[in-house]
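Subject: complex prediction, re-run

Hi both,

The earlier run crashed halfway through, so I resubmitted it with identical inputs.
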Amino acid sequence: MGILSFMADFIDSLAKRHRLLPWLLAYALLLPLPFVLTILFNEYLIDLANRICLFILLAVGLNIVKGFCGQVTVGHIGLYAIGAVTSAVLSLEPGGFGGALGFGWPIWAAIPTAVLVTAFAGLIIGLPSVRLEGAYLALATLGLGESVRIFIAVTPALGSSTGLMMIPAPRIGSFVFDSFTSYYYLVMTAAITGIYFSFSILRSATGRAFQAIREDTIAASVNGINVVKYKLLAFVLSAIYAGLAGALFAHMPPGYLHHNNFTVIEMVTLLLMVVLGGIGNVWGGVIGAIVVAIAYDQTKDLVFYFMDRPIVFQPLVFGLSMVLLVLFMPRGIGGWIEDFQRNRRFVRRSEERLSGTARNP
Amino acid sequence: MGFDYNSLLAFIIFGVTIGVVYGIVALGISLIYSGLDIVHFAHGEMYMFGAFFGLVLAHNVGVPYPIALIGAMVLTALLGMAVERVFYRRLTRAGGGYTVAGMGMIICGFGMSVALVNVAYFIWGAEAEPFRANLDYIPRLSFPGDIEVPESYVLTAIISVALMAALHYFLRHTKTGLAVRAVAHNKDIAYLMGINVPLMISLIFGLACGLGAAAGVLIGPMQSVQVEMGYLMLMKAFAAAVVGGFGSLPGAIIGGIMVGVFENLGAAYISASHKDIYAFLLLILVLMFKPSGLLGVDAKVKA
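This time it finished cleanly. Structure:
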């Protein structure tokens, strides 16, 4: 625990100078990651890092509605799909391959529009939450999310079974984000900004209203919180995260989008990230996203041969670990983080009290 | 082009038959919900396992179709009880409901569902297998206007009605059924009345999974049997359960029939490729405007 406490103290001292300093430090530390990965391993891992960044955005966004506000939504992957497909379709050239729609918009117009469209979709997915709770809300959001995927899968204009191809890569001036390394800077920036804003939301009056609704809806409304407004706001905020992740996913090299990226397996993976991280804990969600995404990627191609038949067993491992996590570690990694923070605070207070420097003994 | 009433009638008849199957699965989901206040997200996999058990019994063991049906129901009921006993018990022991951070059971069910699909894939592979059943002894039904209903559809209707009647009799007219209803009503008081509540919870799970298996074996001859059949069925059964009123047993069947008819009419008159979306559409409409469903006794719109 020594190193951890030291790091925590260091981050605290940085934050005392300026609250953005720890974030800048993290950003600076993450900058050379693609080169480190290329030297130590291979370029494929940069692609994995990109996808991890998108998953972090998704998990952090899901945490807002599920962890902060306590609304059970299972349709998040549908929002991700809406963001991805909207941005792809808007930026594709008209008359594309296989009857796919295309509007030929510039990408920097397509991505914000896709985020806006997804925010609106989030409002619609959130509407049932006004009247429904628990199981019903889960069913309604699951139905909405899944119908998005099926709609994409059967509509030729949105790619249907062939998927959308040749989605253009973003560019600034003559600099094109078309390689894994250049795209990494785009998604990494998005992920860090996303995490930062998620903390801002958590600490703001809005975040406190969310938490009040999570703890007790009736008590929150008695205290003058507009429950309907804040529930919908939580859905919209998380949809913005999902829409941004989706849009960035669509333009990621190789610029190919298929509805298989939005199946229930992905939803399960996303849930696993949030559960492993501990529901409601931002850093837990981030760590969960990293761990699960790496585990998912590394076990994807694992097969064992049984009677000369290749057998994929990754879903079994994932499903069972999810069940066991809920049963035996319901607070997830976030539980450890909270315990660590509480211990640290307790130790520091005791030290201050012993040395007589406590402000209010 | 005149409106063809005969084909409309045909769509409705087929919709009702497939809807009854949705209804049976929904019956199981509703039973678990009314008994334990949890939504079982792995129920589609019970249906899939039931279909495969029936397939194995009918093809590899070679028993006649009705016996395969009963055998599959018993096997799946045992499987369901085992899964509940081993995995869900820590959550259901607290009386069900949303205890762990509001969504423990949802995540647990999701995980179980993915894991069970993978297990089935170990055993039976990913190919769709046709379910060959000899049903020559069942008469074909003919309706005016050249509508012929195949044997498997007739059989489905008969067996579904029989299952519902049996479930109704069990719940309303036997002592064990009374105990199950008492557990569904209030677990603490049921304990005080000397009811073996954990056993009854197992029984509820077994019954629900057996019903799911029956639906799987019934739908086998109409479609083929494959590992990933459970998920869509689950969604449609959810839609059926919600439309009829979650937790209401007659409502589940009525909701199932409504979903089946709605889906068939939509596929026939709007767009056939969007067939699977209509069930969700109906689900969302009902949830928006009447969350308690058609026959929901009291709006259990709480966690």
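Chain B has one domain: 5-133+151-302.

- K.
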